[in-house]
Fold this protein.
Amino acid sequence: MTSDDTDGGDAPTDMEIARAAETRPIEDVAGDLGLGPDDLDPQGNGIAKIEQDAIRRTLGDADEGKLILVTGTTATPKGAGKTVTTVGLGQGLNRLGDRSVVAVREPSLGPVFGIKGGAAGGGHSQVLPMEDINLHFTGDLHALTTAHNLVSATLDTKTHYDELDIDVDNVSWKRALDMNDRALRDIVVGLGGETNGPPREDGFQITAASEVMAVLCLADSLSDLKERLARMIVAYDMGGDPITVGDLGIEGAMAMLLKDALRPNLVQTIEGSPAFVHGGPFANIAHGTNSLLADKLGLALGDYLVTEAGFAADLGFEKFGNIVSRRGVAPDAAVLTTAVRSMKYHGLDMWPTDYDLLKEPDAEAVRDGLSNLDHHAGIIEQFGVPFVVAINRFPTDTDAEIQAIIDHCEEQGYPVVISEAFAEGGEGAEELATTAKELADSDQGAFEPLYELDLGLKEKIRTVATDVYGAEDVHFTEDASDDIARLEDQGYGDMPVCLSKTQHSTTDDPTRKGAPTDDWTLTVRECYPDAGAGFVVVLTGDVLTMPGLPAEPAAEGMDVDEDGNISGLF
């Protein structure tokens, strides 16, 4: 939830609440985790990166805490308050006397200036400093963009000088920009004569969709980062063999650009408890969670790590369970975030979204949309993780609408709690914290990924499609089948699969709401290796790696005055 969604009339905005908060020195926040001033690299007021020596020392000698993973039902395009719930839960655990660490993704400037706004939480459950986090922060995304485009520049130089026998019609590497810019999705480069290189089709993707982002968020050291960067495939030669960053010889230069971006950023919640804000791969394209290093540090330094999976359980939770957790960070419990508006969004079978209609009381529409909640609850259960449903309350929600969700959860046997984290901060999330803590400490969980890595790629894809999305079957286009055969021949068959799918539906069709159970078939149209990240990307539907701005972008309501005070950011 953001201030745009509160409908609170004269209620303070997220920015006003953030500015009124009394923050603690970042050294004191770090001290709560047993870190000293020498372990920090200050990055401005209330922000610090963790020094490399401290990272190595902490990960080398520490007891692990419990991991609580926050996921959600399929939300409206403006979200349902998953980050608010994550931050509020961390604050609630600290109010209970536990040492809790929050870990969330860094915002991308594209969504900040687009429709969704920032990604620092909202109300009284934010990470601070909110303005810095939502804008340039510590420069991590700028470093990622530069490293990504170093590959593009080097690749075109090698092509210009006719090195590596590059097939200009088989270049897989696009350029990157941290902004929503639809005009750059498909472009032509190399125009203006032979001194500018051979003309070829190219395009841009948003930085959060870059494999460099995925690599950074799955690396656990500088040496691991460099090895992963070297494995990234950028093009193919005239014989059809892959050309990698290692062939370009620039993995060292890329790692140099990313050495500071690899280190997690420590900030604080609005109540002064520790939070890592680091990394940000999209969950509809990549694996969709903050960095592995942030999670591992949080588990080593805290009793409980509260971390957030991207989008809904069919995307973020599935990918966390089948990709990220294989790196040693399996969840002990989960929180399934939902909201009255999300259920109405499905109950009214709404596409496109009418936000005014979602504000109107309609308990029957809530009940009609609860199949979506059941679908996502079933996904979590398949992984063997105990969970609690958290109803993120909006000011316009009626008691009857809230009760409709509670009654359904009780009928299904789901633990359910109303979260007032937006309005009341940690105090409004104490009941949620108590329940999540009990689940994490219990012996109820027996986490397991949904498939073994030695299965064939088609079997792994079919498992996700049928068990997670609810598809009856999978249709592989001829091109996709050829891709899979080639990938397995090249030795990529033992990787997990990362399905690129719309976040607006449990199916591959964004217009279909609820949880369709009719005989629908998932269509797979292309597969390619993200060899550095360590997974095979599977394209379904039509997911854009370079979004566009809406007709009325959030940027139109933003400004800065003569004294540098920002307005309109949320």
Remarks:
- The CA atoms of residues 378 and 468 lie 8 Å apart.
- Residues 27-138+261-441 form a domain with the Rossmann fold fold (CATH 3.40.50.300).
- The longest strand covers residues 521-530.
- The first helix runs from residue 14 to 20.
